[in-house]
Amino acid sequence: MRSDRILLSHGSGGTMMRELIEDVFIARFNDEALLRMDDAASLEVPAGRIALTTDTYVVTPRFFPGGDIGKLAVAGTVNDVATAGAVPMFLTVGFVLEEGLMVEELIRILDSMVSVAAEAGVRIVTGDTKVVERGHGDGIYINTAGVGVVREGVDLSSSHCKPGDVVLLSGTLGDHGIAVMSVREGLSFGTDILSDAAPLNHLVGAVLDAAPDVRCFRDPTRGGLASCLNELAGASGVSMTVDENAVPVREQVRGACEMLGYDVYQVANEGKMVAIVPPEQADAALAAMRASRYGEEAAIIGQVTEGPAGRVYVQTTFGARRIMDMLVGEQLPRIC
Amino acid sequence: MADVQAAWRDPELAKHLVELIGKAADRPMKLMEVCGTHTVAIARFGLRAVMPENITLLSGPGCPVCVTANRDIDLAIEFSRVPGVVITTFGDMMKVPGSYSSLAREKSEGRDVRIVYSPLDAIKMAQNEPDKQVVFLGVGFETTVPIIAATIKQAAALGIENFSVQCVHKTVPGALEALVNDPDVHIDGFILPGHVSTIIGPEPYRFIAERYHVPGVVTGFEPVDVLQGVWMLAKQLQEGRAEVEIAYQRGVNADGNPTAKALIEEVFEPIDAEWRGIGVIPGTGLGIREAFSTWDAAKRFDVTPPEPRAIPGCQCGEVLRGAILPFQCRIFGKGCTPEHPIGPCMVSSEGSCAAYYRYTDYGR
What we know:
Chain A is an alpha+beta fold. Chain A has helices at residues 15-29, 32-35, 69-83, 103-120, 175-181, 201-210, 224-236, 251-260, 282-290, and strands at 50-57, 63-64, 67-68, 86-98, 123-132, 140-150, 166-169, 216-218, 239-243, 274-277, 299-305, 312-315, 321-323.
């Protein structure tokens, strides 16, 4: 690969594209299905139900404390497959590259993807690349689709939550959103917060082993815990109450949210999982989370209750009760 | 930092203060907070629900975005239609409806409107894009004004010709007088803004206590802060006093911030200003002084905005004066929601209606 930048010809299906694919993508991903360079990957899949998901990643800036767009692209899709109670197996990856993107940056992103895929135990087996003109495409967009096989006997659904169920959260809130905010143009502030982006399929597997009657999992990504719980409560026709004192939040994240006027419940997380668990299995589920990588700070943060469908309450630190509302548009920093 | 914050959220201390408020509130008392951050804090911590019966907390015109008149938004929109102009604004102003349109709508139709987090970003933009005319929409109370003053001074010092400010800034003390004189609203005491007071100190409010016998307490934003402020007000009323006291000792000095005040004084002078829902309040606006008039967008561009008109159905004006509570608005939650806002009180993150809608059961 001789060019140090991505050029339009790298996307046009000719020899330069082949050079990009062979020297950069396949050299990094190094998967036997990919190496065959067929238009479709032909794979052995165990019998059973499959879970299939897709997501497109457009985060700006593409490198941020604790991660990059590549890490998100693999972890995020792995996690979505895992929330279906499935063991993630294969990923597809589609790139839209902006003319002028430094190849060295692309390589860093690919290396991230390889690392996360290895940790999660998934294979990246097929891909696509397009190059768009300078001024479009914001550097790099990545789409990943993930497929896995649903575990035997597992029947998870966002509509299964019942009053009395326990709400578990696998760790601290707000790390990813604040880490990205801290390096956004015009808003940089000093912080040690790192994005929490991480593959959680092993953690989810451990919880399923310990608490087989888990109702559902969901990761609180865009829109944060608020969107996550509001959606689950709405789908199940129940209310929920969260004990603010029990929700783990790093001091620095809390401080950043106070300063910016953000509601930490609406800040995105990329390495956290919510699980709704029947009460008699809650302790086992919590122990399994805490024993898993990325779940060391897991906590029971609330419960499902009778009440108006889709209503989520917060019992505040100070003892009063208020609603945990979903984000409407963008969260914008305060004026004064 | 953790310990400090924990102290100001201590439930035991909070409970104790609520009891003290109960003892001091020997008759119905209507207390108004005039700061958007207080509106949000009171809603977020569920403080209305724990107040004793006799205490009513009213939200006032404390959200600078909400009180920006249609006329001023219409003017910003006219500026955005001048070829080569970039409007830079704080995010909240994007979605606020003017008479016929909003900055967000104009942006979607191709005008160059960009969100900045600080006015200093707008200066950098002007330097980086010399072929553009960068206009910064200056909204906010005294808390925000010093940084805009500093920005204008920097533009002057660096000789940046393609930068100007549409100054819609307002000052709080004069608005309090208008509220006290409003026949529809009966205010017994003011929960005075914390951060505005960090800049101006308690002196500018004293005339409200002395001339109108209405007490005020400069209050912070944690739950214990707010309860302390309410308690001090209730006590003043119980004892028949009318003074301006500082509860927010850790945030406010007796003479405010002299450096910031000097900056404001150097760059701006008091002018009349139109407050949405209240009308023109003399002396509560800030105009850019002659010495800096080069950077005044209103003097630089010759545009003719349309005649302003009220937003049909919108009762933001009454909410902002404290004449009605948000959920008493005819269209609150029906037709006016955060997803489809009709007026600014539902749009702004510090708007009363948004705070009520987000954190309480009203409107659901």
